[in-house]
Amino acid sequence: MVSASYSQIISILLLMASENPRKNPQFHLYSYYRSSCAARLRIALNLKQIPYTTTFVNLLKGEQLSPAHRALNPSATVPILIITSSSNPNPTTFSSMTDNPTTSITIGQSIAALEYLEEISINTNTNTTPLLPPSTSPDARAQVRTLVNIIACDIQPVTNLRIQQRVKALGADNTLWAHELMEAGFAALEAQMLTSAGQYSVGDDVSMADVCLVPAVWAAQRFGVDLGTFPTVSRVAEMLESLEAVRRAHWARQPDTPEELRAVD
Questions:
Q1: Based on the domain organization, do 10 and 57 belong to the same domain?
Q2: Contact 236, 12 (CB under 8 A)
Q3: Looking at residue 185, which CATH number applies to its domain?
Q4: What is the pLDDT of residue 22?
Q5: What band does 3 get if pLDDT is binned at 50, 70 and 90?
Q6: Staple 36 to which of 102, 215, 223, 228, CB 3.0 to 4.6 Å?
Q7: Pairing between strand 26-31 and 105-107?
């Protein structure tokens, strides 16, 4: 079993992507329609025009807790992104990655997967929609990552399904919990975006920050957060939702969305 920190995993992923670009990769996503983390990858894959297949995991039924799912992602969460090269059609887990860099790779964290998609797109000259500013703009890249981390570290983890279930089990109001923490997180996000927003979160090009922003907005709407309080966030989110790649990734337009919740187009 390989034991590695998050930063070590990212370093290995990026090194593999730069030195060993995969030929004819196939992408498979484990997703749940309401998962904001899975939505990040649906949006990114759509923006980059990367075809993918999907396995649907019902979090409410606890399917993510099964031994089969844990074998792919010990965190028992979604998304999981499996990238399989044509030379090895059988997906494997991260544990074999460092021993044999030609095997398939399984990524169980959405931000690591977004970074990986960006790297392989650059190194195979297929980066039609870059999600990071160019390397010649380190300040802009840092701003993108700052916004990503406000969402992925400060907002989503403390309001996700697992935490809400625990809060409810302890006798507290999980809806109020999520609402208050989302409001605080979006206040920070609004203030940070004011320093960089153009048409989108950082300037006039879609970035990884936008890929993370839209699902966070969808979650906030679900819990009744008044997004009018955050005009920059609202304006950028509205612009993003006009994109077909985002529209197709919406939680109400997924094959596993319950019929009564599906969007009527």
A1: yes
A2: no
A3: 1.20.1050.10
A4: 58
A5: low
A6: 215
A7: unpaired
pLDDT in tens, 145-195: 999 999 999 999 999 999 999 999 999 999 999 999 999 999 999 999 999
Whole-angstrom distance, CA of residue 91 vs CA of residue 46: 22
Assign residue 49 a region (left: φ > 0; alpha: ψ between -120 and 50; beta: otherwise): left
**How do residues 81-116 score in pLDDT, each as one tens digit?**
999 986 544 444 444 444 555 478 999 999 999 999
The residue among 123, 154, 188 that closes a domain is 123
Same-domain check for residues 156 and 233: yes
The dihedral of CA 80, 83, 89, 95: what is its sign?
negative
Residue 219 belongs to domain spanning: 138-261
Residues 199 and 243 in one domain: yes
Q: Are 218 and 251 in contact (CB under 8 A)?
A: yes
On the question of pLDDT at 44 being above 70, the answer is yes
pLDDT (0 to 100) of residue 94: 45
Return d(Cα 196, Cα 212) in angstroms, integer. 16
Residue 164 · residue 177 · CB < 8 Å = yes
Long-range contact pairs involving 42-45 (C-beta distance under 8 Å, separation at least 24): 42/248, 42/249, 42/254, 43/211, 43/214, 43/215, 43/245, 43/246, 43/249, 44/113, 44/114, 44/117, 44/131, 44/208, 44/211, 45/117
Q: Which of 98, 123, 148 is the last residue of a domain?
A: 123
Report how far residue 8's alpha carbon sits from residue 110's, in angstroms, rounded to the nearest whole number.
Answer: 16
Count of domains for the chain: 2
Distance CA 212, CA 129 (A): 15
Q: CA-CA distance, 138 to 115, in Å (whole number)?
A: 15
CB–CB of 240/200 below 8 Å?
yes
* Domain at 23, CATH number: 3.40.30.10
